[in-house]
Amino acid sequence: MSKKNFPRILITFLFFCLILLNPVLFNALPTKAQNTPDFLALQEMDERGDGFFFMKDLESKDTIMKTARLIRPGNEYITGENELFCVEKVEGDIAWARSKGKIKLFEGNIATISQDNSSLEKTVFQKKRPENKPENNVPRMGVYHSHGAESYVPSDGEESTLEGGGILQVGHAFVEALREKGLEVNYSSHTHVPHDAGAYNRSRRTAEQLLHQGVGALFDVHRDAVPAEEYTAEVEDTPTVQVQIVVGQQNQNIQSNRHFAEGLKKVADKVHPGLVKGIFMASGNYNQDILPLSLLFEVGTHENTREGAARSMGLFSDVIEVYFMGEPGKQAREGLGGTALKSILWIIFIAGLALGGYLLIGTGSIEELRAKLRHFFSREFAEFKDKRNGDRGDGDHSGNDGGTA
Q: pLDDT at position 202, please?
């Protein structure tokens, strides 16, 4: 080897060493990219494998809520009493949050939500959606389960069932309750197993299929993994499994989805107070970038009963109905029956005016018209009175005959 070629060989050797050592160095040295979760990581890592988090108030040290869903700084939570908390730091199993005070929930409905910055027209798959829309402006609902293996231990005997857990029956009960109210619903019972980091990627295909079928609102139905009492409350004097709404912060529809969640909670607080446990703005996407009206529901926990969870979703269907269609009975009053009644009253009123005008023309003056009307009603009333007395007399005569016989 000549001295002239030695530097070139040394450089080539060092270059190959760097290539071989690069993975080791990358994993050993902490970098900002490694410590900062990116979009895909947030989309995939949504729950703890075991245990759960306590969200606590920084000031009072009181527990705000518990959840097996991952909690990170920047996450927000709206309690059942509509107090907003923002997570500032996470230490082990405890997420410390600071209160921002009570808030006024968003009062809009589908019409106002569509005016948000991320509107229906800006949906990722909008161009693939069918053109036809329901005449009553109520969207077709889409219901599915990203974690279709989730079960309820008291009813199903285990926390998870690969062929499909109790959560599917809860979702089916929800769908049937919505359909009974006249709402159009497309339902997918795909399980998307296993319950791993890729479940949301698999369920995304299902969500897209539902979108192509024309749905305008998507609901991903889950259950949490905390003690049963965390999701149990008195609703209308009955112990009831609560529903928690989850909104993903990593999607362009965050504002619309959050407004949708707040609107549903506001209705629930009126229709079934205590049914909605709270609204959790969590780190993740949850496929909510697909539609501005897209939410995730936690229906109880693995320690609640499946039957209790199904009943709660029946109650929650009332919330959906009122949100999109108004209070029960209002549609009937404003629908065909109410319209017909108003039409009849208008016809009677117009007919009365026409008759009054005709009589006035025939009599020549208002005084003469009044006199004729008084005479008419006096005569008719006298005949009615005589007939009634005659009928009463016939009755007495019949009674007397019966007594003597």
A: 96
DSSP 257-302: HHHHHHHHHHHHHHHSTTSEEEEEEESS-TTTTS-SSEEEEEEEET
How do residues 148-198 score in pLDDT, each as one tens digit?
Answer: 999 999 999 999 999 999 999 999 999 999 999 999 999 999 999 999 989
Positions of the chain with pLDDT lower than 70, given as ranges:
1-45, 110-136, 328-366, 368-370, 372-405
Look at residue 391 and tell me if it is in a domain. Answer: no
Q: Are residues 206 and 61 in the same domain?
A: no
Task: Let me know if residue 103 belongs to a domain.
Answer: no
Q: Give the whole-angstrom CA distance, residue 245 versus residue 281.
A: 9
Q: How far apart are CA 290 and CA 252, in angstroms?
A: 9
Phi, psi (degrees; rounded to nearest 5) at 13:
-65, -45
Q: What is the DSSP letter of 101?
A: E
SS3 label, residue 386? helix
Residues 360, 374 share a domain: yes
Residue 190, beta-bridge partner list: none
Beta strand spans in 123-255 (E): 140-144, 185-187, 215-224, 232-235, 238-241, 243-248
Verify that 214 and 305 share a domain, yes or no. Answer: yes
Query: Beta partners for 172?
Result: none
Task: Give the whole-angstrom CA distance, residue 87 versus residue 57.
Answer: 9
| b/e sequence 72-100, b meaning 16+ C-beta within 10 Å | beebbbbbbebbbbebeebeeeebbbeee
Q: How many CB atoms lie within 10 A of CB 128?
A: 10
Residues 92 and 235 in one domain: no
- Residues 237 and 267 occupy one common structural domain: yes
Range of the domain at 319: 108-333
Domain end point (choices 333, 365, 391): 333
Q: What is the DSSP letter of 155?
A: H
Instruction: Say if CB 37 and CB 45 are below 8 A apart.
Output: yes
Q: Which two tokens stand for residue 306?
A: 């499946």
Quick check: 154 and 138 in contact, CB under 8 A?
Answer: no
Whole-model pTM: value is: 0.70
Residue 391 and residue 383: Cα distance in Å, rounded?
Answer: 12
Total domain count, the chain: 3
